[in-house]
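So, can you check this record?

>
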Amino acid sequence: MTTATQSSLITPPERSPSAIPPMEWALLTPLIEEIRDLKEKRNAIVLGHNYMTPDIFYGVSDLTGDSLQLARQAAETDAEVIVLAGVHFMAETAKIANPNKIVLIPDLDAGCSLAESITAEDVRRLKRAHPGVPVVTYVNTSSAVKAESDICCTSSNALQVVNSLNTDRVIFIPDKYLADWVASQTDVEVITWEGACMVHERFTGEQMRGWRKRFSASGSGNGGRSGNGNGTGISIVAHPECPPDVLAEADFVGSTSGMIAWVDENRPQRVALITECSMSDNVAIEFPEVEFVRPCNLCPHMKKITLEKIRRSLAEMKHEVVVEAAVAAGARRAVERMLAVGATASS
């Protein structure tokens, strides 16, 4: 499975009967077919984030992946309308990347605790307190915050972005845990902000050790660690938005795309993805031979997006996302600077 992929309607028994039982799928089919008809009528696509439930992720999403990948791929399509099955900052990012397209979000209340932890004025205060220090902003922020920044980053390229600035200090906002993780791997001084994701922050190192103990094979002597995925314990794959004690217990730390790639490469016997619960449901469909232990922390904001709300969004063309031109321009500069770092590294 890869992120930001083209998806099509899937009959669950062909992939994973446990993800969406056939009887439930049969009940959902009329609604899914109505959404497909509306997409054709509106010349629309649905962007499904990795944290969407399987009925949305596999039933109606045309592109799937993380927020930035979705926004970039959407710009390459001929669709006139984009429905963002995710949270509000993602819809803003899609609009910034696609200024000439209509971007809809099915529920205006689908927010984000991390994005809401900081405002544009907070960034301006930080810059006054630390004059001349560049501001690195995680993409999980509002467009107004991005517009006040020097450069954006994702969880997969945060360290690369920080090191690319060739400076002794950076302001890294808003996720304190991602900032701490970056600081642990660079000599650059990282000035942090007290922001956190309400989903990832709930995980604890004690939980990780509990799963190690529970799944350790008798006499294995490895405390339940399966390392590269070939052991008999459990592999723990964690998102860097998790607290440090969780990351210390992990076999691998990485972004959503990085986590999926690790599972694909290692094919562990048993794995726990330490992130939003629905991602495990979606990834498990692609790797039926892997046992997924599901530490189920759900994002209440993501779960505001439902099939019925997607249908209504397309039928009534709501709710349209608008980003002020000046703000969009500033945010776009910060995102483009980040993309330039990646282009330089890959050339």
Observations:
- The two ends are 25 Å apart (CA to CA).
- Residues 1-17, 218-223 have pLDDT under 50 and may be disordered.
- The longest strand covers residues 44-49.
